[in-house]
Amino acid sequence: MHTALTIAGSDSSGGAGIQADLKTFQALGVFGMSAVTAVTVQNTQKVYDIQEMRPQIVHDQIACLFDDISIEAVKIGMVASIPLIESIASALGSIASLPPVILDPVMISKSGYALLKPNAQAALVQHLFPLAHVVTPNLPEAEALLGKEITDIEGMKQAAREIADLGARMVVVKGGHLGQDNATDVLFDGNKCRLLEHRRIQTANTHGTGCTFSAAIAAYMAKGQTFFDAVSQAKTYITGAIENAFDLGKGCGPTHHFYDLYQKAGMVID
Fold first, then answer.
1. In sequence order, what E strands does 11-144 have?
2. Which CATH architecture group holds 2-129+209-264?
3. Residue 255 annotated in active site
4. Going by fewer Cβ within 10 Å, which terminus of the chain is more open, N or C?
5. What is the spatial distance between Cα 195 and Cα 184, in angstroms, rounded to a whole number?
6. pLDDT in tens, 126-164
7. Catalytic residue among 17, 37, 184, 211, which?
8. Active site residue 6
9. Annotated catalytic residue 211
10. Angle at Cα 214 formed by Cα 210 and Cα 220, nearest 5°?
11. Which regions of 182-254 does DSSP assign to beta strands (E)?
12. Looking at 209, 235, 253, 255, which residue is catalytic?
């Protein structure tokens, strides 16, 4: 059985964060474990509040799992503060043979709630980028990391190279916010860029898409896929999950993490 660890916050509505990551791992045939960094108060409409875990607890969740189980990939999501970032870096930095680490630099929720404290961005880059095999910012996150506006595909390619210069080995700049007919992602492996395109899906039900996409990359890398293949398969997976998303709640509904399994089983969601 392949394995992966998610280090992220809990989403009480079940569509993003730890919950989305574990569903994604399970859907893709990977046994998922979790180190919870924070508990959020949120639903499909917005994030209302966050309670962070003690940094030592986060550190020890990670350390005890590596002491016991062979972990084949790590996904890092929401880490809101400098002490949490430092505790994760300390725990992962002590692993002699660290598996692929996929870092999703979660900064702001769809409703505008700051999920990464402004003073923690530099710490994220300093402590976690060097440990990351893949960093997966969306356009607003890439702009925040680089302090400049990105308006087209060429700008995304340049941004991917500059983010790699910050310490990450490989980068996926997600282009969903670009507003074009196709949702285009730029993949950079440290040497060359590739484009990954898919038609834009017209739906408001996209809660947890970034978490799910990065978790899928981690799952495929845990199964031994190369960077480009893992991201390509993760793109196919998240596209299907969005196409079959649930119209739940009064805001942005969640994606359907098990859509493929439901279809194979002949199950229909009313």
1. 30-42, 47-52, 74-76, 101-103, 134-135
2. 3-Layer(aba) Sandwich (3.40)
3. no
4. C
5. 7
6. 999 999 999 999 999 999 999 999 999 999 999 999 999
7. 211
8. no
9. yes
10. 145
11. 182-188, 193-199
12. 209
